[in-house]
Write a structure and sequence with these properties.
It is built from 17 helices and 34 strands. By secondary structure, the chain is α+β, with helices and mostly antiparallel strands. Pfam families: CSD2, OB_RNB, RNB, S1.
Length: 705
């Protein structure tokens, strides 16, 4: 029987022209007893959007019909951007009138009006059908009208209200937060319909925030009993037999360096000075030994894609029996690892490396705080406590500086955005917000992990084995044109028609460092770049200026790392057979797409809850005055950022000393009569006047004019 790969390969030939079902039967010499199977295969391929059936009942590839398959990203303003599955096709703009019922994150087929860019603008298109729906359940707020009951989704990108019928079993009142299941999908002329599954609570209710974020982003909060059972079965102590099969590195002095509250310790580092430089060991928990392909644990990890960190709550990718115990590189315990041991010269170049299955025993569980006390504060008490490791830490810092300098030399980008650390009490209420510190300890771990990821990615590339690469493509023309409009105001420019390389961005970042406009321009440069994603093709990593890059160093909390470990293990153990290779090659696109989607979902959930917690924290300060700096200026006002990273809006309607107009070229508000100017970086005094916790909105007003 013919396979899907053979059908697609045949259609991808340049000489192919659309064929009817009967003609396909003849081409593939399908026997009468296989006709039903073949018809089902074509039906599946059509349903998945891999092939298209024309009005004349002929089969062809979407690109032959001017159609593009991809994921629809909706804007709260009502339009959509199609992100094509094919990375070589640029994004496609879709007006709201042409969405035809497509919802945020749906997999859709779009008919393109023209793939050519006109004046740097994206090509435009229209949704012809939804291939698969991403949001079968949504969280929203109940709104009762005279004759209707609807749920308005919390996510503003879900632009359609969902009409629901009153239920006798579930009583939902106006303003309730609910979980709704969609029972009828929207189309060009109809809103979606749904059924309320659960009332989560009243709007503004204490303790509702985490639950709403979990439900809203469709995160998996609990592990099924069968997954927990399997985790307990595989979480066995390291056996002598397994140790005998591996390189024994238990004699090598090594440490883990993490945050105080971290429990899933998946990387340890070791270092020694050599005649020609340094020997750096990056030892990563061998999760693939415990989570076998196709197991219940593996299927659950695939669905989750990543661990999600919700302020004080973690939704781990793997059950605690693995993530916090047998897979975690806890000090003083024998643990299975995959080690990347690199010889690095004085210029930061890897001159030799060894990848091996190992058994390790970590000497100390270090924290960033304690390592920074040794490296920065020269704290005598901490140095005395870890006296036998102090030399290692200074050697690590020395090598880290060299590696970082080498990376920056080739053009890597280093965005220095302040991150918030939110401290909460036992009930989840925020009691303090402070900037998260990024000292030498945090930076050296980052540098070592990046270098190990690069070594593994390049090794796998030259071995010609299928893995997931971490891909970060260069910005497109439209994004660069928009960036240049803002850069020009401040006297900077990306040369038109120049080959876009990381060094161009790096040069601007260096020039704006320490200047008032640094925050705004850094954010604009960041937003001009595409979101990194996981793909089977090594398309390079623009932000790191790296030709080959993958994620290898966090298999406890990221599924792509687990996949890389699995393939590397097959390579190291000589189990790389033809059939296995073909099977994995087929799965990589699906692994990459799912992992990318889950990463975006996790990022959005983490960001949303952080904003809610910041609003909760600021409630207690209503009426108080603060000094902050303008972080961005918009036609409707400007945002002010406080020292603790909290941002709030000063709406233009509240600035009473003049009538202000937005100057797009200078990104500022300018008074019509008095000429006063509000620009990014200006220091202002403000009073906190309003906080909306549910929408995570904070409003300031100026106190001095």
């Amino acid at each position: 029987m013919v396979t899907r790969e053979e059908v697609l390969a045949y259609m991808q030939q340049e000489s192919y022209r659309p064929l009817t079902y009967e003609e396909m039967l003849e081409v593939f010499a399908i026997k009468e007893e296989d006709m039903v199977k073949f018809a089902k295969l074509l039906g599946r391929l059509e349903k998945e959007g891999e092939i298209v059936k024309t009005r004349k009942n002929k089969y062809g590839l979407p690109e032959m019909m001017n159609l593009v398959k991809g994921t629809m990203r909706l804007s709260p303003w009502g339009y959509g951007i199609l992100v094509p599955d094919n990375p070589r096709i640029g994004e496609i703009f879709v007006y709201g009138r042409n969405l035809n019922g497509a919802m945020h994150n749906d997999k859709v087929m779009v008919r393109v009006h023209s793939l050519e860019r006109i004046g740097g603008q994206r090509p435009e298109g229209e949704v012809v059908r939804a291939i698969s729906r991403a949001n079968k359940e949504l969280v929203g707020t109940v709104k009762k009208g005279k004759h209707t009951l609807q749920v308005v989704p919390d996510d503003p990108r879900q632009i359609y209200p969902i009409y629901v019928k009153p239920s006798r079993k579930i009583k939902a009142s106006h303003g309730d937060k609910v979980l709704v299941k969609i029972t009828a999908w929207p189309d060009k002329d109809r809103y979606p319909e749904g059924k309320i599954l659960e009332v989560l609570g009243r709007k503004g209710e204490v303790g509702l925030d985490v639950q709403v974020v979990i439900k809203k982003h469709n995160l998996r909060a609990e592990f099924p009993p069968e997954v927990i059972k399997e985790a307990r079965e595989v979480a066995k102590p390291v056996s002598r037999e397994e140790i005998a099969r591996r390189k024994d590195l238990r004699h090598v002095r090594m440490v883990t360096i993490d945050g105080e509250d971290a429990k899933d310790l998946d990387d340890a580092v070791s270092i020694e000075k050599t005649e020609k430089g340094y020997r750096l060991g990056v030892h990563i928990a061998d999760v693939s030994h415990y989570v076998r392909e196709g197991s219940k644990l593996d299927k659950e990890a695939f669905l989750r894609g990543t661990s999600v960190y919700l302020v004080d709550k973690v939704l781990p990718m793997l059950p605690p029996e693995l993530s916090n115990d047998i897979c975690s590189l806890n000090a003083g315990e024998d643990r299975l690892a995959i080690s990347c041991i690199m010889d690095i010269d004085e210029k930061g170049r890897v001159v030799a490396y060894d990848l091996c299955k190992s058994v390790i025993n970590v000497n100390e569980r270090m924290t960033y705080t304690d390592v920074n006390k040794i490296l920065v504060e020269n704290d005598e008490e901490t140095k005395a406590k870890y006296a036998y490791l102090v030399e290692d830490f200074f050697l690590m810092k020395e090598l880290s500086d060299i590696i970082r300098a080498e990376r920056m030399k080739r053009g890597a980008l280093d965005f220095n955005f302040p991150e918030a650390k939110i401290i909460v009490d036992e009930k989840g209420r925020p009691i303090e917000i402070k900037k998260r510190e990024r000292g030498p300890a945090e930076m050296l771990i980052e540098d070592f992990m990046i270098r190990a990821n690069e070594v593994v990615a390049e090794h796998m590339y030259w071995q010609e084995v299928p893995i997931l690469y971490r891909v970060h493509e260069k910005p497109d023309e439209e994004a660069l044109a928009k960036v240049n409009l803002v850069l020009g105001v401040f006297g900077y420019k990306i040369p038109p028609h120049a080959r876009v390389e990381p060094r161009i961005y790096q040069k601007i970042l260096e020039e704006i460092k320490g200047k008032p406009e640094e925050g705004l321009l850094s954010m604009i440069l960041l937003r001009s770049m595409k979101h990194a994603r996981y793909m089977p093709e090594p398309l390079g990593h623009f932000g790191l200026a790296s030709k080959y890059y993958c994620h290898f160093t966090s298999p406890i909390r990221r599924y792509p790392d687990l996949i890389v470990h699995r393939v590397l293990t097959l390579l190291l153990e000589g189990g790389w057979k033809g059939r296995k290779r073909i099977a994995l090659e087929k799965k990589m696109p699906l692994y990459g797409e799912q992992s990318t989607q889950q990463e975006i979902r996790a990022e959005e959930a983490e960001r949303e809850l952080e904003s809610i917690k910041k609003a909760q924290y600021m409630q207690q300060f209503i009426g108080e005055e603060f000094v902050g700096r303008i972080s961005s200026v918009q036609p409707f006002g400007f945002f002010v950022e406080l020292d603790n990273t909290v941002e709030g809006l000063v709406h233009i309607s509240t600035i009473e000393d003049d009538y202000y107009e937005f100057n797009e070229r200078s990104c500022s508000l300018i008074g019509v009569h008095r000429g006063r100017k509000f620009s990014v970086g200006d220091e202002v005094k403000v009073q906190l006047v309003r906080v909306d916790v549910d929408d995570a909105k904070i409003d300031f007003e100026l106190t001095e004019y």
